Write a sequence for this structure.
């Protein structure tokens, strides 16, 4: 079974509108972390936002927010007021605790969603 | 702002040759990682490194791969005998001890095996 599932291969949004990128995950751990990264066409991976499994509040970073629904195992990224520069591939990722409870931070990534922002 | 750097940005090599990909992590970071991304596919974990030893490795990281921290600043990935299927973008990442959730990625090295 896929640990991270991003069901939207591509999404389109009009400039200045909000968009939600979906991510569901599968883990039996109680302690885990969820991440979103942006990969522009230039190829680098840019860290956007992090949500810990024990965090009660949804994470926010500027125009990015993470809609964390633990019972549904979803961690959707919401981008408000889209800009042309937001056009990129977006990856959802998860870090689980390895056996013994120690996590060295290994990330498992989803397949990604290509976001295109139209002017 | 400090950043992870990687060299070279693009490496072309012939099948069977050895390649070394270099990374300079952020200076106060102590956890280091290598990931790869085959063109058009998702990013895959290869190995994590802490305290001068491998912490965890994936099934991809077989005997052809090795990692090393030869000095206080560099972190290298060596592929001993490259195969066509090793062609990919290789990302180095690093994180602080206290904030392993914040992994900062380098710009990547595109490896092309011909």
């Amino acid at each position: 079974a896929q640990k991270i599932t991003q069901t939207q291969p591509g999404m389109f949004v009009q400039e200045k509108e909000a968009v939600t990128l979906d991510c569901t995950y599968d883990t039996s751990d109680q302690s885990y972390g969820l991440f979103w990264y942006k990969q522009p066409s230039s190829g680098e991976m840019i860290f956007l936002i992090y949500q810990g499994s024990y965090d009660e509040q949804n994470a926010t970073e500027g125009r990015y927010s993470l809609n964390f629904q633990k019972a549904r195992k979803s961690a959707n990224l919401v981008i408000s007021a889209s800009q042309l520069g937001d056009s990129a591939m977006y990856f959802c990722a998860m870090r689980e605790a390895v056996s013994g409870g120690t996590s060295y931070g290994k990330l498992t990534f989803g397949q990604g969603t290509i976001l295109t922002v139209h002017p | 702002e400090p950043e992870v750097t990687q060299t070279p940005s693009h490496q072309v090599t012939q099948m069977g040759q050895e390649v070394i990909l270099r990374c300079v992590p952020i200076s106060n970071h102590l956890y280091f990682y290598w990931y790869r991304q085959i063109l058009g596919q998702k990013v895959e974990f290869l190995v994590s490194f802490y305290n001068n030893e491998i912490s965890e490795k994936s099934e991809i990281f077989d005997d052809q791969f090795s990692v090393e921290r030869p000095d206080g600043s560099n972190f290298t990935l060596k592929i001993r005998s490259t195969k066509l299927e090793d062609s990919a973008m290789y990302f180095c990442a690093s994180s602080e001890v206290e904030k392993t959730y914040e992994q900062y990625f380098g710009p990547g090295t595109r490896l092309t095996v011909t």
